[in-house]
Design goal:
By secondary structure, the chain is an alpha/beta fold. The chain has ten helices and 15 strands. Strand 14 and strand 15 form a beta hairpin.
Amino acid sequence: MRHEIWQQLQKEAKELVNVEPLLASHVYSSVLNHECLGSALSFIVANKLADAVVSAFTIRELFDQAFVDCDKMLTHVAHDIKAVKDRDPAADSYLTVILNLKGFHAIQAHRLAHCLWRQNRKELARFVQSRTSEVFGVDIHPACKVGHGIMFDHATGIVIGETAIIEDNVSILQSVTLGGTGNEQGDRHPKIRAGVLIGAGAKVLGNIEVGEGARIGAGSVVLNPVEPHTTVVGIPAKVVGKPSCPCPAESMNQNFLEDQPQSVNDSYTSAML
């Protein structure tokens, strides 16, 4: 997949240069001057993460080595690009995703930090985490395990703890926390299974499992496990029904009332009044 996406990125980049010459230098530096997806990605993200002490060149070298050491990393990157393009109506091209969307950039920075963490280069991994938090407003512990096809929509304020796991094809919106419930040690963060959609501002706390294809409503506080293919909403979150499709992360439908019988809608509305 990554080769097809790279070809499309080059095509879109050439088209953008033709219609918006003011961005030509940016597009050439970021995409057209590179030979592959990994080279372009490392250039883009490294230039955002660099500071006065650690240069973009140094971070690019870390990325390039990570692509070798973590052999699935670039395949995961390609799945992430496609996931955002397919799910976000504001992302009208692959080029927009790789150039402009900080949620995508934050995930790729985390992939680098996680690779470093696995190599026991923990202080360097923490540096990447810190810069990712400062630059993108997304704080993911380097030990957190993240699958592919991940979308962070808007992304600002997302916080994910050390022992959290996010499986494939998950969509998470802004201000979501996957956190602990206190200062407990050990395995203490949520496990998010494939296909889950987590709405804006939701807080999922503790070593609990959110089952495959589940959906968490915006602003909910989830303290208990969530069964697969169920929708939970509220503070504390309670089951209110089932998503209308097997993979809510792909449909991105956050209006859970559309999936419920009118009697359920009326009951929920009455409870909120």
